[in-house]
Amino acid sequence: MSGKKGIRAIILAYGTKVRLLLQETMESLGISSTPCDDEGQFFDLLKKGTFDVALVVHGPGDADGELVTKRCLEIVPIPVIVLAQECMVEEAIKIMQAGAEDLILSPWEDQILKAAILKAVNNFPLRQLRNSHKRRIKQRELVCKSENMLRLLEIAKNIAPSRAAVLIQGESGTGKELLARYIHQESDRAHGPFVAINCASLPDALLESELFGHEKGAFTGAISRKKGKFELADKGTILLDEITEMAYPLQAKLLRVLQEGEVDRLGGAESVPIDVRVIATTNRDVKKAISDGKFREDLYFRLNVIPLTLPPLRSRIEDIEALAEYFLKEFSKDYGKSGLVFAEGVLEELKSRPWKGNVRELRNIIERGVLLAREGEVRLEDLFFDELESSQGDAPPASTIQVKDMFNLHDIEREVIKKALIKTGGNRTHAAKLLGISVRTLRNKLAEYREMGLVL
């Protein structure tokens, strides 16, 4: 890679040390770079400049890789590479689903960055240049045919055009965020931003800054002004996920924002008006949280204008077959396994299960089945091999799975990892994302296989 190729990078990094390090790295690779420490400046430069690649540092105290990637792709078709000191699997999945070309964990070695940038610049135009400059992020459908779900969707569609706050309750894995996105898409704010934040994922002090923003110098490390999620969601929708996990003192500040329609940045002298539709979700019993003194009753009343409750999957058995077929089609396409079908007895077994993890659990198990499928069929042993291993020697359960072939769990693990690496072209970060494990765990597994003389 050399300067003759004229590759131009734009860098978003809040920390001075990291920003300078990336500048020096780009210079050593012969890449022209423009550094930014402010999202507003970053997006303004994107609109005005001609860049080949964007590097975004993600993490606490830095940018939100998922959100910045989405906004980048709305402004101009450009490959986005997200860099992180560390990253949870759920964060990584959301970043990649937002459209990032790559996610690279620290240490950001020169040769790794070089390969990632070159690949992104070369491959991106082939896949991304379209008639529109706006990239459409795949939106999963709300698949259902049960009467209770159809009635719920009808209510959601009817209230979508209003500005009324919505409180979505339901067990973990029932699809609360998916329903929130459905309401946004059916509203007159569909062309505005949809900004989601998990209230349980950040410490209290950091959550306040993420929600409401801060001014330069508001606290140690606040080296520039930063807009909060409410400002970024202006003219659109904000999703406050796991709202009952928010600290009690912060709930009072949130209540004021909802009542006044304005936010006060940390360290700011003036309020900033906002126009945002608020949707909150929780898997907790809100009334119990109120009685326990953990959630403000006045905030509950303010959020609970439109109450929606997603039923657990065990209460919508009619939907299980449709969901299973939908996920089978989705993952068959993702993993290049066209023509897969469920073997005899699979759908009956799926409909007989309690599904404590709800739709999320069903989706994960179907993905596993597609990865392990052979001879064009997804069989019971492909879906539930972990249960088969743990139940050997025990009495068969009430719903017995007939096993034609017995597997060694370590062999299956190695085969799944091999398929994930093939699917992702050897990219360990992407493979780890598909497998639902950390990159470090994947590296350890590969090292273990090498010591055994096995090469994947």
Q: How would you portray this structure in words?
A:
Helix content is 45%, strand content 13%. It is of the alpha/beta class and 456 residues long. The protein has three domains: 3-128, Rossmann fold; 147-311, Rossmann fold (3-Layer(aba) Sandwich), CATH 3.40.50; 315-451, Helicase, Ruva Protein, domain 3, CATH 1.10.8.60. A five-stranded parallel β-sheet has the order 2-1-3-4-5, with helices on both faces. Helix 3 (65-75) links the parallel strand 3 (53-58) and strand 4. 36% of the residues are buried.
Short overview:
The protein is of the alpha/beta class. 45% of the residues lie in helices and 13% in strands.
Q: Ends: how far apart? A: 29 Å
Overall pLDDT level? 84
The general outline is globular
User: Using only CA atoms, what is the Rg?
Assistant: 24 Å
Helix segment tally: 20
Q: Label the structural class.
A: alpha/beta
Q: Classify the oligomer.
A: single chain
For the biggest β-sheet, the strand order reads 2-1-3-4-5
Largest pleated sheet? 5 strands, parallel
Helix amount: 40-55%
Q: What's the CATH superfamily of the largest domain, by name?
A: P-loop containing nucleotide triphosphate hydrolases
β-sheet strand percentage? 5-15%
The CATH architecture designation of the largest domain is 3-Layer(aba) Sandwich
Number of strands: 14
Unreliable stretches:
1-5, 126-138, 395-407
